[in-house]
Amino acid sequence: MGWHARFRLARGQTIDDVIAKLPAIESSLGTYRGAVRVSPTPDDRADQFELRVLDKDPHADAIAWSGPSVASITQPIDFGPFEDAAPARVLFLRRHGLFGGVSGSGKSGALNVLMGNLSACRDVVIWAIDLKKGMELAPWAPCIDRLADAVVILEARADMLATAGRRVWEPTPDMPALIIIIDEYAELADDAPDATADADSIGRRGRAVAVTLIAATQRPTQKAMGQGALRSQMDVRICFRVRERKDVDLILGQGMLTAGWHAHTLNAPGKFMISAPEHDTARRAQGQDAHSEASSGPRGLQGPHRGAQEPQRQADAPDG
Ligand SMILES: Nc1ncnc2c1ncn2[C@@H]1O[C@H](COP(=O)(O)OP(=O)(O)O)[C@@H](O)[C@H]1O
Ligand SMILES: [Mg+2]
Q1: I need a surface site. Which of 87, 94, 97, 285 has the fewest CB within 10 A?
Q2: Residue 90 and residue 198 in one domain
Protein backbone atom coordinates (compact mmCIF):
# COMPACT_ATOMS: atom_id res chain seq x y z
CA MET A 1 0.00 0.00 0.00
CA GLY A 2 2.93 2.39 -0.46
CA TRP A 3 5.37 3.67 2.16
CA HIS A 4 5.64 6.13 4.99
CA ALA A 5 8.42 7.88 6.83
CA ARG A 6 9.01 10.43 9.54
CA PHE A 7 10.80 13.64 8.52
CA ARG A 8 12.49 16.36 10.47
CA LEU A 9 11.62 19.92 9.51
CA ALA A 10 14.22 22.60 8.91
CA ARG A 11 14.54 25.08 11.73
CA GLY A 12 11.47 27.35 11.82
CA GLN A 13 9.49 25.30 9.29
CA THR A 14 6.08 23.94 10.20
CA ILE A 15 3.85 21.17 8.93
CA ASP A 16 1.74 23.85 7.22
CA ASP A 17 4.70 24.69 4.99
CA VAL A 18 4.83 21.05 3.89
CA ILE A 19 1.07 20.88 3.32
CA ALA A 20 1.26 23.98 1.14
CA LYS A 21 3.84 22.16 -1.04
CA LEU A 22 1.88 18.91 -1.45
CA PRO A 23 1.35 19.19 -5.23
CA ALA A 24 5.08 19.85 -5.73
CA ILE A 25 6.00 16.90 -3.48
CA GLU A 26 3.67 14.61 -5.42
CA SER A 27 5.18 15.76 -8.67
CA SER A 28 8.79 15.30 -7.58
CA LEU A 29 8.02 11.84 -6.20
CA GLY A 30 6.53 10.96 -9.57
CA THR A 31 3.30 9.74 -8.01
CA TYR A 32 -0.31 10.57 -8.82
CA ARG A 33 -2.27 13.58 -7.60
CA GLY A 34 -3.64 13.04 -4.10
CA ALA A 35 -1.25 10.16 -3.32
CA VAL A 36 0.69 11.95 -0.59
CA ARG A 37 -0.56 12.40 2.98
CA VAL A 38 1.14 14.61 5.53
CA SER A 39 0.23 14.33 9.19
CA PRO A 40 1.56 15.33 12.61
CA THR A 41 3.65 12.69 14.37
CA PRO A 42 1.81 10.67 17.03
CA ASP A 43 3.83 12.52 19.70
CA ASP A 44 2.83 15.87 18.13
CA ARG A 45 6.37 17.12 17.54
CA ALA A 46 6.35 20.63 16.08
CA ASP A 47 9.60 20.02 14.20
CA GLN A 48 8.67 16.70 12.58
CA PHE A 49 5.96 15.26 10.35
CA GLU A 50 4.92 11.98 8.85
CA LEU A 51 4.71 11.51 5.13
CA ARG A 52 2.67 8.70 3.64
CA VAL A 53 2.70 7.84 -0.05
CA LEU A 54 -0.06 5.58 -1.28
CA ASP A 55 0.52 3.50 -4.38
CA LYS A 56 -3.15 2.68 -4.68
CA ASP A 57 -6.28 4.59 -3.67
CA PRO A 58 -7.60 2.75 -0.60
CA HIS A 59 -11.00 4.17 -1.44
CA ALA A 60 -11.14 2.91 -5.01
CA ASP A 61 -14.27 0.81 -4.50
CA ALA A 62 -17.66 1.80 -3.14
CA ILE A 63 -18.53 0.59 0.34
CA ALA A 64 -22.00 -0.73 0.95
CA TRP A 65 -23.92 0.47 3.97
CA SER A 66 -23.56 -2.14 6.66
CA GLY A 67 -26.74 -1.23 8.51
CA PRO A 68 -27.20 0.89 11.61
CA SER A 69 -24.17 1.14 13.87
CA VAL A 70 -26.03 2.61 16.86
CA ALA A 71 -29.12 2.10 18.99
CA SER A 72 -29.02 5.44 20.80
CA ILE A 73 -28.20 9.05 19.97
CA THR A 74 -25.66 8.89 22.80
CA GLN A 75 -23.49 6.69 20.55
CA PRO A 76 -21.30 7.99 17.70
CA ILE A 77 -22.55 7.23 14.18
CA ASP A 78 -20.26 5.53 11.66
CA PHE A 79 -20.26 7.12 8.19
CA GLY A 80 -17.56 4.96 6.66
CA PRO A 81 -13.83 4.34 6.89
CA PHE A 82 -10.87 6.69 6.81
CA GLU A 83 -8.01 5.56 4.60
CA ASP A 84 -6.41 3.60 7.42
CA ALA A 85 -9.74 1.70 7.77
CA ALA A 86 -10.59 3.34 11.11
CA PRO A 87 -14.30 4.27 11.10
CA ALA A 88 -15.25 7.94 10.76
CA ARG A 89 -17.55 7.97 13.78
CA VAL A 90 -19.16 11.11 15.05
CA LEU A 91 -21.54 11.95 17.85
CA PHE A 92 -24.67 13.97 17.03
CA LEU A 93 -26.09 14.24 20.54
CA ARG A 94 -26.73 17.95 21.22
CA ARG A 95 -24.81 18.96 18.11
CA HIS A 96 -25.86 20.69 14.92
CA GLY A 97 -24.43 19.53 11.61
CA LEU A 98 -23.55 20.94 8.22
CA PHE A 99 -22.96 18.83 5.10
CA GLY A 100 -21.47 20.71 2.14
CA GLY A 101 -20.08 19.92 -1.30
CA VAL A 102 -20.91 20.20 -4.98
CA SER A 103 -24.01 18.70 -6.47
CA GLY A 104 -23.49 14.96 -6.88
CA SER A 105 -20.75 14.75 -4.24
CA GLY A 106 -22.71 12.50 -1.89
CA LYS A 107 -24.45 14.79 0.61
CA SER A 108 -27.89 13.21 0.29
CA GLY A 109 -26.34 9.75 0.36
CA ALA A 110 -24.69 10.57 3.67
CA LEU A 111 -27.95 12.00 5.02
CA ASN A 112 -29.51 8.65 4.15
CA VAL A 113 -26.86 6.80 6.12
CA LEU A 114 -27.43 9.23 8.98
CA MET A 115 -31.18 8.67 8.89
CA GLY A 116 -30.75 4.93 8.66
CA ASN A 117 -28.78 5.12 11.87
CA LEU A 118 -31.08 7.58 13.61
CA SER A 119 -34.06 5.37 12.70
CA ALA A 120 -32.46 2.64 14.78
CA CYS A 121 -32.21 4.93 17.82
CA ARG A 122 -35.01 4.55 20.33
CA ASP A 123 -34.33 7.97 21.80
CA VAL A 124 -34.68 10.00 18.58
CA VAL A 125 -37.49 11.60 16.61
CA ILE A 126 -36.54 12.63 13.07
CA TRP A 127 -38.16 15.41 11.11
CA ALA A 128 -36.70 15.40 7.63
CA ILE A 129 -37.31 17.92 4.89
CA ASP A 130 -35.93 17.61 1.36
CA LEU A 131 -36.14 20.90 -0.49
CA LYS A 132 -34.51 19.58 -3.62
CA LYS A 133 -37.47 20.08 -5.86
CA GLY A 134 -37.82 23.62 -4.72
CA MET A 135 -40.47 25.06 -2.54
CA GLU A 136 -42.67 26.34 -5.33
CA LEU A 137 -44.10 22.83 -5.35
CA ALA A 138 -45.92 23.74 -2.14
CA PRO A 139 -46.12 20.25 -0.58
CA TRP A 140 -43.29 21.24 1.74
CA ALA A 141 -45.11 24.21 3.22
CA PRO A 142 -46.44 22.24 6.22
CA CYS A 143 -42.94 20.94 6.88
CA ILE A 144 -41.58 24.43 7.05
CA ASP A 145 -44.08 25.18 9.81
CA ARG A 146 -42.39 22.38 11.69
CA LEU A 147 -39.45 24.66 12.32
CA ALA A 148 -41.77 26.95 14.27
CA ASP A 149 -43.13 23.87 16.08
CA ALA A 150 -39.59 22.86 16.93
CA VAL A 151 -38.97 26.25 18.51
CA VAL A 152 -42.10 25.77 20.64
CA ILE A 153 -40.81 22.38 21.77
CA LEU A 154 -37.41 23.86 22.42
CA GLU A 155 -38.85 26.56 24.64
CA ALA A 156 -41.07 24.16 26.56
CA ARG A 157 -38.11 21.89 27.16
CA ALA A 158 -35.97 24.80 28.32
CA ASP A 159 -38.68 25.65 30.87
CA MET A 160 -38.80 22.05 32.03
CA LEU A 161 -35.06 21.98 32.50
CA ALA A 162 -35.13 25.23 34.43
CA THR A 163 -37.91 23.94 36.68
CA ALA A 164 -36.04 20.72 37.28
CA GLY A 165 -32.80 22.61 37.87
CA ARG A 166 -31.03 20.66 35.17
CA ARG A 167 -28.66 21.98 32.54
CA VAL A 168 -29.07 19.54 29.66
CA TRP A 169 -31.71 17.24 28.22
CA GLU A 170 -30.72 13.58 28.38
CA PRO A 171 -32.72 11.89 25.61
CA THR A 172 -34.74 8.80 26.48
CA PRO A 173 -37.39 6.90 24.50
CA ASP A 174 -40.04 8.94 26.33
CA MET A 175 -38.22 12.23 25.96
CA PRO A 176 -36.35 11.78 22.69
CA ALA A 177 -33.87 14.00 20.95
CA LEU A 178 -35.52 15.87 18.07
CA ILE A 179 -33.33 15.88 15.00
CA ILE A 180 -34.39 18.08 12.11
CA ILE A 181 -32.72 17.24 8.83
CA ILE A 182 -32.98 19.64 5.91
CA ASP A 183 -31.56 18.72 2.51
CA GLU A 184 -30.83 21.53 0.01
CA TYR A 185 -31.04 24.04 2.82
CA ALA A 186 -30.38 27.04 0.55
CA GLU A 187 -33.92 26.72 -0.82
CA LEU A 188 -35.21 27.65 2.61
CA ALA A 189 -33.40 30.98 2.66
CA ASP A 190 -34.58 31.64 -0.89
CA ASP A 191 -38.23 30.84 -0.49
CA ALA A 192 -39.11 30.92 3.20
CA PRO A 193 -36.93 33.56 4.83
CA ASP A 194 -39.20 33.58 7.91
CA ALA A 195 -38.34 29.98 8.58
CA THR A 196 -34.65 30.81 8.74
CA ALA A 197 -35.29 32.88 11.87
CA ASP A 198 -36.66 29.72 13.50
CA ALA A 199 -33.64 27.80 12.26
CA ASP A 200 -31.41 30.42 13.87
CA SER A 201 -33.24 29.99 17.19
CA ILE A 202 -32.72 26.26 17.00
CA GLY A 203 -29.06 26.88 16.20
CA ARG A 204 -28.55 29.15 19.17
CA ARG A 205 -30.71 27.44 21.78
CA GLY A 206 -31.40 23.89 20.67
CA ARG A 207 -28.33 22.04 21.91
CA ALA A 208 -29.05 21.92 25.63
CA VAL A 209 -32.55 20.59 25.01
CA ALA A 210 -31.46 18.10 22.32
CA VAL A 211 -33.34 19.83 19.51
CA THR A 212 -30.78 19.89 16.73
CA LEU A 213 -30.57 20.79 13.09
CA ILE A 214 -28.62 19.07 10.33
CA ALA A 215 -28.45 20.94 7.04
CA ALA A 216 -27.03 19.93 3.68
CA THR A 217 -26.26 22.52 1.04
CA GLN A 218 -23.78 22.92 -1.79
CA ARG A 219 -22.14 26.15 -0.66
CA PRO A 220 -23.13 27.46 2.78
CA THR A 221 -22.72 31.14 1.99
CA GLN A 222 -24.29 33.72 4.27
CA LYS A 223 -27.09 34.02 1.74
CA ALA A 224 -27.68 30.26 1.52
CA MET A 225 -27.72 30.00 5.33
CA GLY A 226 -30.27 32.79 5.72
CA GLN A 227 -27.96 35.68 6.70
CA GLY A 228 -27.97 34.78 10.39
CA ALA A 229 -25.26 33.10 12.44
CA LEU A 230 -26.48 29.55 11.90
CA ARG A 231 -23.31 28.34 10.22
CA SER A 232 -21.20 29.32 13.21
CA GLN A 233 -23.43 27.08 15.38
CA MET A 234 -22.68 23.97 13.35
CA ASP A 235 -20.53 21.66 15.47
CA VAL A 236 -20.12 18.80 13.02
CA ARG A 237 -18.99 19.73 9.50
CA ILE A 238 -18.79 17.18 6.74
CA CYS A 239 -17.19 18.39 3.54
CA PHE A 240 -17.61 16.44 0.30
CA ARG A 241 -15.89 17.45 -2.92
CA VAL A 242 -15.85 21.17 -3.55
CA ARG A 243 -15.25 22.83 -6.89
CA GLU A 244 -13.23 25.76 -5.63
CA ARG A 245 -10.59 25.58 -2.93
CA LYS A 246 -12.03 28.53 -1.07
CA ASP A 247 -15.23 26.57 -0.48
CA VAL A 248 -13.32 24.41 1.99
CA ASP A 249 -13.20 27.34 4.41
CA LEU A 250 -16.83 28.12 3.68
CA ILE A 251 -17.91 24.63 4.74
CA LEU A 252 -15.34 23.67 7.36
CA GLY A 253 -14.36 27.08 8.71
CA GLN A 254 -11.75 29.76 8.18
CA GLY A 255 -8.19 28.47 7.81
CA MET A 256 -9.08 24.84 7.15
CA LEU A 257 -7.81 24.86 3.55
CA THR A 258 -4.34 26.01 4.60
CA ALA A 259 -4.44 23.50 7.46
CA GLY A 260 -4.59 20.74 4.85
CA TRP A 261 -8.30 20.02 4.42
CA HIS A 262 -8.00 19.63 0.67
CA ALA A 263 -11.58 18.70 -0.13
CA HIS A 264 -11.14 19.97 -3.70
CA THR A 265 -9.00 16.86 -4.34
CA LEU A 266 -11.67 14.36 -3.28
CA ASN A 267 -12.12 12.36 -6.44
CA ALA A 268 -15.38 10.44 -6.17
CA PRO A 269 -18.90 10.84 -4.77
CA GLY A 270 -19.22 9.83 -1.14
CA LYS A 271 -15.66 10.81 -0.20
CA PHE A 272 -15.51 13.37 2.56
CA MET A 273 -13.53 15.08 5.29
CA ILE A 274 -14.99 15.64 8.71
CA SER A 275 -14.38 18.33 11.27
CA ALA A 276 -15.91 17.81 14.70
CA PRO A 277 -14.79 17.95 18.31
CA GLU A 278 -13.42 14.40 17.98
CA HIS A 279 -11.99 14.96 14.48
CA ASP A 280 -9.43 17.75 14.24
CA THR A 281 -6.99 16.43 11.66
CA ALA A 282 -7.43 16.45 7.90
CA ARG A 283 -8.10 12.89 6.81
CA ARG A 284 -10.04 11.51 3.88
CA ALA A 285 -12.93 9.17 4.50
CA GLN A 286 -15.27 7.30 2.22
CA GLY A 287 -18.95 7.26 3.00
CA GLN A 288 -20.91 4.07 3.05
CA ASP A 289 -23.28 3.96 0.15
CA ALA A 290 -26.86 3.47 1.25
CA HIS A 291 -28.00 3.05 -2.35
CA SER A 292 -25.56 0.29 -3.17
CA GLU A 293 -27.09 -3.02 -4.21
CA ALA A 294 -25.19 -4.83 -1.50
CA SER A 295 -26.44 -2.56 1.26
CA SER A 296 -28.26 -4.17 4.09
CA GLY A 297 -30.75 -2.32 6.20
CA PRO A 298 -34.10 -0.78 5.47
CA ARG A 299 -34.70 -0.88 1.74
CA GLY A 300 -37.59 1.48 2.22
CA LEU A 301 -35.16 4.24 3.08
CA GLN A 302 -35.49 6.06 -0.18
CA GLY A 303 -34.85 9.61 0.66
CA PRO A 304 -35.09 12.29 3.24
CA HIS A 305 -38.65 13.15 2.22
CA ARG A 306 -40.12 10.03 3.76
CA GLY A 307 -39.76 11.26 7.29
CA ALA A 308 -41.25 14.61 6.35
CA GLN A 309 -44.58 13.08 5.55
CA GLU A 310 -44.62 10.50 8.26
CA PRO A 311 -42.54 11.36 11.27
CA GLN A 312 -41.46 8.02 12.59
CA ARG A 313 -43.16 8.71 15.82
CA GLN A 314 -45.50 11.32 17.02
CA ALA A 315 -43.69 14.52 17.86
CA ASP A 316 -43.19 14.69 21.57
CA ALA A 317 -45.60 17.00 23.26
CA PRO A 318 -43.94 19.98 24.87
CA ASP A 319 -44.66 18.47 28.26
CA GLY A 320 -42.60 15.45 27.39
N1 LIG B 1 -20.88 6.84 -0.45
C2 LIG B 1 -21.01 6.70 -1.78
N3 LIG B 1 -20.31 5.76 -2.43
C4 LIG B 1 -20.42 5.64 -3.77
N5 LIG B 1 -21.22 6.39 -4.55
C6 LIG B 1 -21.94 7.34 -3.96
C7 LIG B 1 -21.89 7.55 -2.54
N8 LIG B 1 -22.72 8.57 -2.23
C9 LIG B 1 -23.26 8.98 -3.39
N10 LIG B 1 -22.80 8.24 -4.43
C11 LIG B 1 -23.17 8.40 -5.86
O12 LIG B 1 -23.21 9.76 -6.20
C13 LIG B 1 -24.49 10.14 -6.65
C14 LIG B 1 -24.85 11.49 -6.10
O15 LIG B 1 -24.95 11.42 -4.70
P16 LIG B 1 -25.90 12.37 -3.87
O17 LIG B 1 -25.87 11.90 -2.47
O18 LIG B 1 -27.24 12.48 -4.50
O19 LIG B 1 -25.13 13.77 -4.03
P20 LIG B 1 -25.59 15.22 -3.58
O21 LIG B 1 -26.70 15.08 -2.59
O22 LIG B 1 -24.35 15.83 -2.98
O23 LIG B 1 -25.99 15.93 -4.82
C24 LIG B 1 -25.42 9.02 -6.15
O25 LIG B 1 -26.49 8.82 -7.00
C26 LIG B 1 -24.53 7.82 -6.13
O27 LIG B 1 -24.49 7.24 -7.40
MG1 LIG C 1 -28.57 15.94 -2.66
Answers
A1: 87
A2: yes
Ligand 2 centroid vs 101 CA: distance in angstroms? 9
Mean pLDDT of 152-160: 97
d(CA 186, CA 216): 8
Please tell me if the CB atom of residue 270 comes closer than 6 angstroms to any atom of ligand 1.
yes
The pLDDT of 107-116, averaged and rounded, is: 95
What ranges make up the beta strands (E) of 161-297? Answer: 177-183, 211-217, 236-239, 271-275, 285-286, 288-289
Q: How much is the average pLDDT of 23-29?
A: 94
Strands 177-183 and 211-217: parallel
Residues 136-154: tens digit of each pLDDT:
445 556 667 789 999 999 9
The residue whose CB lies within 8 Å of the most ligand 1 atoms, and thus the one to mutate among 59, 79, 105, 183, is: 105
Instruction: Report how many domains make up the chain.
Output: 2
Question: Is the CB of residue 109 below 6 angstroms from any atom belonging to ligand 1?
Answer: yes
- CB 100 less than 6 A from any atom of ligand 1: no
Number of Cβ within a 10 Å radius of residue 18: 17
Which amino acid type is present at position 121? C
Residue 220 · residue 253 · CB < 8 Å: no
Q: Are 184 and 303 in contact (CB under 8 A)?
A: no
pTM, whole model, 2 decimals? 0.85
Q: Based on the domain organization, do 84 and 140 belong to the same domain?
A: yes
The finding on whether 105 has its CB within 6 A of some atom of ligand 1 is yes
Same domain for 46 and 127, yes or no, is no
Same structural domain, 25 and 89: no
pLDDT tens figures, 284-314: 999 999 876 554 444 334 333 333 333 333 3
Q: Are strands 271-275 and 236-239 parallel, antiparallel or unpaired?
A: antiparallel
Are 9 and 40 contained in the same domain? yes
User: What's the distance, Cα to Cα, between the start and end of the chain in Å?
Assistant: 53
Which domain range does residue 232 map to? 63-319
Distance CA 154, CA 148 (A): 10
